[in-house]
Fold these 2 entries.
Entry 1:
Amino acid sequence: MNSISRRDFVRVAVSALVAATVLSAPEVASREVGGRRWAMFVDVSKCNGCMACVVACAAENNVPVGVFRTWVERHVLPGGRVVFVPKQCNHCENPPCVKPCPTGATYVAEGGLVLVDPSKCIGCGACIITCPYGARYFNPLTGAADKCTFCVHRIKLGRLPACVEACPTRARVFGDLSDPNSEIRKIVDSIQTKVLKPETGAEPQIYYHALPEVASR
Amino acid sequence: MSYPTYPNGYIYPNEVAVGLTWLPIIVTYMLLISIASGSALILSLGVLLNIGTLRRLTPLLLTLSLAVSLVYLLGPLADLRRPDRAFYILVSPHITPSDTYPGISLIALMAGVMWPLLIILLAAIGYITIYRGMWSSITTKVLALILAFVGMVWSMYFGLLLLTHIPLLAVLNLTPLLPVESLLESIALASSIALLALTAHYRSLEASTARILGQTIIACSLAFIALRLLQVFLLHAFKAGSPEITIFLNALSTLNTIALILAALSSIVALHLYYKSSTISSSLLAVLALLWVSSDRWLFTVNIQSISKTALSIIPASLDLAAWALETIGMALLALFLYYVIHTWIIKEPMLKVERSGVMLGEH
């Protein structure tokens, strides 16, 4: 009978471990494949709070009643002026919600989109609790975590997200930030913009113009 | 610097819909984790440092840690919205970072790697020491060292989980005090439960055992009080005036005071036990330590989740306390049953053999 030395055993075990790690490594560097960086620009001064984006999103994505992929906040400034601020998932460059997901159900897809694979989600809520923007919720129909996808099914077909298409004042601009000729790139380069809660280090990819301090939380 | 105020509150709409993301059952399983990990830590230190009194407690601590370890993952299972998929944590844990899956999931690491490791180490040390009597061998020491590390990580898990998952705590920068506090709480709680178990088994306590465990509880509770007061001082000193600290202190201060009082009472009863061991003091100490750690766990899980991510309002959430109580009782009874089974069928028999052969534990 062939006997195996301890050294051989260790070598085989280490090789097997390395091979298993490499083979199980998921779509490494998928963000770089397309070379795109999807992002959104929101001009708060143009939003009139019509909620067309909220309705369009709910209709497009079958969002259950009571939860929101996008919502519009109403803030009253000192002096009485009212501003409306649309909010949603920020598809962060450094997404805090992806790290804690124990099963890899939440992941960063091509173009920097932060997506959820509902078939892998165990409903632990780690991503919901970690998202600093309150953009995630438990989908009551599936029990899985859910959120804005930037309408990935539409942008794959070259269409705009439903909320952007529905906005009557063009308060929302969507596009590829890595393309120097894109509208969003030109706007972000030429206008002063802000992001929400920069102190979290999440590097959100929704850029706001005319965002008052009271609404920046 | 002045901060904006929101008289009517300001909450994200999804927070209202979700309410408490982690249900109150988290308090129960964090308590069980503390008992299991604290026992494992004391056990490993007894073996590593060759402390005779602690070494004599090995069978009891081993049974306690093993029984509770086998039960505590039922807690998160009760918390999952899709428990039918829980096995994904074991078969595809997110523990290797990549561009698609950046970072490492602490939950996956603990449930998928550290939990099986804890069980295997406990079983291995139990076999080597109790069955084989190899108390001082290199293998035993190495295993005890690894167990000490695993036990310490599990003991700190509560603080680590909160710091890495709750943005408010990260903003308030409670690192590293929170994980250290949970470590101290785990050791104190495990010591007091061990005292209770000893009292239940033998109806009396050996003075040396009562002294060493009492001492441990006194040290842990006093250190906890000191660290918590330091934490409150630091928050007041460096973050005063911010909306985060204002709402944090409002939501947490009452229960925080209760936890501090219970920790102080625990140290007083442990001091009494140190000088005069009695069954009443040990039972009282277990109850006090349980209440102290429970109130602190409740504070940092249930209360902290009720603070909106805007840090400007409290989320109106209803708690299903009846379901929580039933789940807690169920888990405690199952742990008790496993303790009985392990003690009677796995530990007691070899112990009796050792006693019959005239060799006392710890004298190999």
Note: Chain A has one domain: 29-215.
Entry 2:
Amino acid sequence: MMNAVPISWFLTLSAVLFALGVAGFLFRRNIITVFMSIELMLNAVNLSFVTFSYQHKEVSGHLFTFFVMVVAAAEAAVGLAIILTVFKNRSTLNIDDVNSMKN
Amino acid sequence: MQLWLIPILPLAGFLINGIFGRRFPKSLVNTVAIGSVVLSFLWVMKTIFAMGDLNTPHLEHYFTWIQSGTLNIGCDFLVDRLTIVMLLVVTGIGSLIHIYSIGYMAHEHGPNFGGYYRFFAYLNLFMFFMLVLVLGASFLLLFVGWEGVGLCSYLLIGFYFDKKFATDAGNKAFIVNRVGDFGFSLAMFLIFRNFGSLDFAEVFHKAPGATEQTLTLIGLLLMVGACGKSAQIPLYVWLPDAMAGPTPVSALIHAATMVTAGVYMTARSWVIFTHAPGAMDVIAVIGIATAFMAATIGVAQNDIKKVFAYSTVSQLGYMFVGIGSGAFSAGIYHLVTHAFFKALLFLGAGSVIHALSGEQDMRNMGGLRKKIPITFWTMVCAWVAISGIPPFSGFFSKDAILLAAYQHSPAIYWIGVFTAALTAFYVSRAMFMTFFGSYRGNAHPHESPAVMWAPLAVLAILSLVGGFAFPIPEFLKAMFPAFEEAENHMLMYISVFAGFAGIAVAYLMYVVKPGMADSLVQTFKAPYNLVYNKYFVDEIYSATVVRPLVGGSRIVLWKGVDAGLIDGIVNGVGARCRDVGSVLRLLQSGNIRSYATWVLFGSVALILAMGLFGGLPR
């Protein structure tokens, strides 16, 4: 059954998802969208990890996926908290307005 | 024999007074300062008696100071007959002047309040270095003392450091001495190059084997050093200005001891000089020229200390005439008697200045004979001694020098005799202007305390009897090459006559007809102005040496090298860094997405590179 879907398709999907994540990160202004783009890139990487893990019949790819998921969960918790605080203080979600560290 | 105690005692006094003196009462400062010097004097006496036979030099080796390649310099002290003479002069007169200073400095206050302990600390430090100079058994150790006394001279000339003329005079003394020290250093390099050692014994043992050319060069360079320290033409200009220091300093350092270091050094190096007749001639000519020129300047000065300062320069010239004529012991003889009577003249002048609450201009003195009789009578002793009146001390030593000069060159003798007359004249002039006639100032003269006139009295006795009581030439006979002094009574009568003539002329001009001096000045206006302004030597030096040097330093070294080159490099490096930074900082936009773009470009570039070059480097 698995043989029906070639390995390159998974990797292409992963690359497309990653590229979408990068594009979203670079071109969107809303912090939440940027944040979701990061999650998208992480999951694209997860997909390639799992793919290679299956290909090479090795478990370390799975292990890294779990690590990435843990990091992503922590990041989501901290990141969302930061976003909430930023919104409370500045009433904006536009990342170009959050530049008080400049100068 | 523990020679090291002799210099170490004053050094201890310096350390104690210098470190703790601020908290000491004056009496304790006095005890430490005078005690250390007097103990040093007593130890010198003990050493002399312990030596017994003085003909073998006594050498003490303490440690190896410098060991580098073939250069081996030990910390060695040497005592022979010449050293004994110098030690007695330095510690003996040093003790007297230390005692005198108690009285002289007692009223020091104002901005220098607290300077009391500082004065005595410096004086003790001076004694230490002077004794190292005299005791050192190598040229380098002598040079240590030589530089040390120069430092103390600088510190004490500028003792009243809140007065600009005093600090200027200190700087002048220090800088002019650097010129001489440069010559001395070169002489030491040459000595080491030719003889492979700086120890007196070894150098003087090998010196006769060297070529005359080498020895002449060494001798002339040593003389450059002596010219600086002993104030000879062309480097004498610092000594008259050095009178800005307290008067005991003028007496101790700038009359009796330090300035005679050059005479001591040349006499110590007699082996080199006797094999370099050319250098000897130069010394004799410099000596007589200095003696004559300084004496003429002394004739026209009105500041009592300036008169005696030029007199010191002139008398040092006599000593070099003795050395240059080959009569080394006569030079040392005059060094000793001069130390007696010139220290006395200066201390007496200090007593006069003290009595008049700081007045130094002789035009505001006069008639002090009755008001400060002890000072007057002690100074009379110095007066007859320096004028060369027999049988007082100056007569013997000056006569010995003039006799030697006559054998060397009659021309030098005749100039010397004329200078002797001038000497008698200007000292008499100073005495008459100060003590005779009627008082022209408005202070209230008072006799100095006993602590001041007691040293004066001792020096007065020494000035009177020092000539025949201390027959230095006899004492030093074994040290120096035999010098046949022809008995020539005619020459002796001439020089004595010159002394009397000088006194008589001064008596005529300043006592019998007080207006005569002024009318003579009117008649001989041009020559008077020339000597009154010290031949404009300071002005000439200023125009030819000082100003070009200062101007050159300002334009080339300061504006050019320092401000232009060095500052330019430093500032240029800083400015280029700023320029590069101002370009690079454009990358730091503070915009997260631009950073992300750079990260993206970076990673794409990395992946492309890995693809092109076939994966990660192994």
Note: Helices of chain A lie at 7-27, 31-56, 60-90.
